[in-house]
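Appendix B, Record 12. Input sequence as logged:
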Amino acid sequence: MNISDIMTEKNIIIGIKANSKREFLQELATAAAKISGLDERTIFDTLLERENLGSTGFGEGTALPHGRFEGLQHICVLFAKTAYPVEFDSIDGKPIDLAFVLLSPEGNGADHLTALAKLSRIMKDETLCNKLRQIDKPIEIFALLNDAN
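Logged structural output:
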């Protein structure tokens, strides 16, 4: 699975302003609704429910909120950079500034896990994440993510 299989440069949001994890998830849900066709509230509730099970904050400023959705036809991925770090209850206690959001069809467990593994490898690559923090153009971020395949 390549990044280009699950997202485009239009799925990259730069400069999200949020003062809390909840606000950040709401901003992500709003953006994800536009690319997925799902209801914004459904996305928010699903992401929040997943976070209540345990934070998807990886540490080192990264997070990977995700969920499965009835009626979704294919995997949708969104990449987001915050305008400033947001507290996220990450495993290392540090705020986040980079996140992928993974929306998967309800019955598509194998592809969900494949995408989750792909995105988590990217988020755990400290060099790559530092490069992503330096770039402010979606097309350049998308190119860098594609090269990380």
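The radius of gyration is 14 Å.
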